[in-house]
UniProtKB/TrEMBL annotation:
<protein>
    <submittedName>
        <fullName>Probable lipoprotein NlpC</fullName>
    </submittedName>
</protein>
<dbReference type="InterPro" id="IPR052062">
    <property type="entry name" value="Murein_DD/LD_carboxypeptidase"/>
</dbReference>
<dbReference type="Pfam" id="PF00877">
    <property type="entry name" value="NLPC_P60"/>
</dbReference>
<dbReference type="InterPro" id="IPR000064">
    <property type="entry name" value="NLP_P60_dom"/>
</dbReference>
<keyword id="KW-0378">Hydrolase</keyword>
<keyword id="KW-0732">Signal</keyword>
<comment type="similarity">
    <text>Belongs to the peptidase C40 family.</text>
</comment>
<dbReference type="InterPro" id="IPR038765">
    <property type="entry name" value="Papain-like_cys_pep_sf"/>
</dbReference>
<keyword id="KW-0449">Lipoprotein</keyword>
<keyword id="KW-0645">Protease</keyword>
<dbReference type="GO" id="GO:0008234">
    <property type="term" value="F:cysteine-type peptidase activity"/>
</dbReference>
<dbReference type="GO" id="GO:0006508">
    <property type="term" value="P:proteolysis"/>
</dbReference>
<keyword id="KW-0788">Thiol protease</keyword>
<feature type="domain" description="NlpC/P60">
    <location>
        <begin position="45"/>
        <end position="165"/>
    </location>
</feature>
Length: 165
């Protein structure tokens, strides 16, 4: 397996039951691909710096379901754009598919760059990127691109799982 071709993931969305904040229909095979900019030797500090750069560039950009630009972006779109532009890693586009890749880890094992997932409704999900010290980067419905605390009164009871890419 090469850095350019890590894995193939085939998943079919089953209607609205798999809805998430980035729930756009994905009917094709999803390919996880690493671009040359991403090196496994990146230290935590380098990844953290890149994530804060991304936050500075996108801070306050409003939430828009299915959005992928500074005119509006959803949670999985922001994760998708951030990993591609800052780390050179091409992730699936939807929250559902993003939750299926990588390795599931315990909350106590979180490191900078891990994905954190939340159950925000019966079938809806939310995703963000863990930064440090119990903080994560994501797109809020109210604040747009922002940083929140995992132990926040809203997020703490909705925490679902974490994934390391």
């Amino acid at each position: 397996m090469t850095n350019r071709n890590i894995a193939y993931v085939v998943v079919y969305l089953y209607g609205s039951l798999l809805a998430g904040c980035g729930a756009l229909p994905e009917q094709e095979t999803v390919r996880l691909e690493v671009f040359p900019a991403y090196e496994r030797t990146d230290t935590t500090n380098v990844v953290k710096e890149k994530l804060y750069i991304q936050f500075d560039e996108w801070r306050g950009v409003r939430y828009k379901l299915g959005g992928l630009s500074r005119h509006g972006i959803d949670c999985s779109g922001f994760v998708y754009v951030t990993f591609k532009s800052q780390l050179g890693l091409h992730l699936p586009r939807t929250t559902h598919l993003q939750s299926k890749i990588g390795k599931e880890i315990r909350k106590s094992e979180l490191e900078t760059g891990d994905l954190v997932f939340f159950k925000t409704g019966f079938t809806s999900r939310h995703v963000g990127i863990y930064l440090e010290e119990n903080k994560f980067l994501h797109v809020s419905l109210r604040k747009g691109v922002t940083i929140s605390e995992l132990d926040n009164v809203y997020w703490k009871p909705r925490y679902w799982k974490a994934i390391r890419i």
